[in-house]
Structure prediction request, 328 residues.
Amino acid sequence: MAVMGNSAPDPETPLSEVGEFEAIALVTARFEQGDHVLVPPGDDAAQVRSASGMPLFATDVLVDARHFRRDWASAEDIGRRAAAQSLSDINAMGGRATALTVGLTAPPDLSIGWMLSLADGLAAECAEVGASVVGGDMTRGDLLMLSVSAMGEASGDPVRRSGARPGDVVAVRGRLGWAAAGVAVLGRGFRSPRVVVEAYRRPEVPYDAGPEGARLGATSMIDVSDGLVADVGHVASASAVVVDLQRSAFAVPDPIAAVGAAVGVDPLDLVLTGGDDHALVATYPPAVKLPETWTVVGSVLEASAGRPAGAVLLDGEPYEGTPGFRHF
Prediction:
């Protein structure tokens, strides 16, 4: 292992020269620890205070060239996106994340500067909700991969996917289609409209929406990570109901419309099937008065012989397109 002493290594120094434990020390020094962290990084495990005694957990794995591309986003952007993905899962249960652990598989030629910028992105996104990165692991591998696990808690019972009931309304809080428009632009070698490219690089997650939805009486919730149609389909399946989305409820922002026209796709498809914005979708009893930050986009129907449980409709007809991102 290269001995660095008290001086920071050149950012271009590969991990193979920095060494595992020196790299870990440099990374963990970037993570501030909140008062809820009782045992910070440095031991075999961290200890985090849980006020409720019933913590929530979520894990996501991100693979280079599959979930992110280093030529499309900076290391800091990738760190923020990686953290947001797991933080958003806690949000979707009506909770707020308190801690993250991060596993990293890295090729030996990855620079220490890239890794430290990744850590900065993880820390910055965690700061949005007051969470701390409390530990993780690093190992050598041919492929760059991240495994991010989030811990959090809810003030009451978590809001699950399986609670939607016929007669509920379906409402969304957050952006839809922006990241998908960014991917469509980047995939064709362009960098504009810049606003959609930045939306892909750094999602604007409505982290207050989960706890708010729980307080309002949401019967089910899910975050839009793979696409609205795909994700409300998970709610419909778990709840044994049908979800009917209304085309007229969706306003297509000008930048997304411009991307649709430029790449030859219906911009509404970007809104309905694009992931990575991590908007929150919830179902509510019809009597609930929703704040203006929530947009009603559909309704929950009872399953029947002609419309089986788990179906997603658009204006009363089965959605025929690809519902969203699929790994296999």
